[in-house]
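Problem: given the chain below (208 residues), write out its structure.
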Amino acid sequence: MTHDHHDDSVHGSELSEMQLRVRALETVLAEKGYIDPAALDVMIEAYETKIGPHNGARVVARAWTDPAFKQALLADATKAVQSLGLIDRVGDHLIAVENTPKLHSIIVCTLCSCYPWEVLGLPPVWYKSAPYRSRAVNDPRGVLADFGLTLAADTQIRVWDSTAETRFIVLPMRPAGTEGWSEEKLATLVTRDCMIGTGLPREPKDIG
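Solution.
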């Protein structure tokens, strides 16, 4: 199972074959009145700027620096996230699960691809794939190894299965060497994958 995290941005004015097909499909659907281009633009802008892993990163960074918020997050993540005013809504019921030196959590949706879009953005392709959805339950340690994450043998791995009503976000452990960091700087260490459980936060040395 491969896990590519490439930058898919378009360079210059050149479009890939897939992008050209998407553009053509959008044009046809708009001409037939099936979609409103203006509404589509609003949705795209929302997912690019208002919805995404940067929201989750702020949630994690706040939990790392504010014990009261962390307690509130673990008690009722939906309410805690909404209290930050970052987004208009969260999945029907958002649950935050905390990683510790002895317990590591990983999120999956075995039935489809339920995912907390508002705090993590669009789900990666591999999250929706059948191999990930099955192996995350049957061989979570092997899946983590595929992502380059090897945990201590005595670390318990717990798999959280999302549903249409319940979504999860992992609260990873704060990296050492970040004492005195601001919430904004800490947020730069938080990645989408560490909030899914398939990765760890960046190390301070990795961001300069």
